[in-house]
Amino acid sequence: ICLNGGMVHRDSLGIKQVFGVNKIEYFGKHTQALNFGAGVVHELMWDNTPSRRGQQVINQEIYQIWVDLPTDQRMSNISVDLLGGKDETPTVVEKRGSRLKSSTLVIAGSHRNHKSTMAQKSAYTILLVTVEPGEVWRQSSPTSYHSMILYMRKGSGTIGGRRVPKHYTAFCSTDGDIEVVAGSQGADFLYLAGEPLDQNVVARGSMVGESGQDITDAMKDVNQNKMGKPWEVGISDAEWRRHIRFHPCSYNAEE
């Protein structure tokens, strides 16, 4: 999720995507949803190219969120989708009369019946929220959501009488509802919630499985270049396309 600046994605399936904010070249696409599935080699680099208007972003900021797949989906086909705009990631604005109370960007899941179009393998919600000073923001989630996390990017907020300062993370109670009261400087935060998968998790680097054998099998695929063979950082698009033609990913992308 790009908050400032942009990213360039290339992978061993031959997919290249450019996305971010504040440049017309991104066409409003600020978020990439990448389902690794069976596995793919990919490169994600900062977009340092000037815009058509000659502007160049110096400060870049993103959220990178990893969501575990259900066990029966870990070998699923790979998908790489860009999201952005009111039809895919709606922004929900609340006002008090003519005055702004809060703004909620729905990346995944829903807020006040406004839903994201992100394809999901399990039930979870990702929201980017800004709340004006002293105002209250509320979110209701299904009671099956046993995880609820809030990261305060800017400002501060109070949850259940406890203050959450800037750059702090709050792990909230799981009764399905949350209420955030913004501090004197307002609040800008990331909200995460979801249903538990209730499955074993074994991880090594970027590999995630249910057992040590899953990780061994995945590392074997890596060593045999079944996910594609890594390329040198900084090579041109022509060189990258030539490389993946000879060293493609063995797994399939979703139609």
From TrEMBL:
Domain Pirin C-terminal as annotated: residue spans: 129-227
SUPFAM superfamilies, per the entry: RmlC-like cupins
InterPro entries: Pirin, Pirin_C_dom, RmlC-like_jellyroll, RmlC_Cupin_sf
Top-rank lineage group of the source organism: Eukaryota
Protein name per UniProt: Pirin C-terminal domain-containing protein
Taxonomic classification: Eukaryota, Sar, Stramenopiles, Ochrophyta, Bacillariophyta
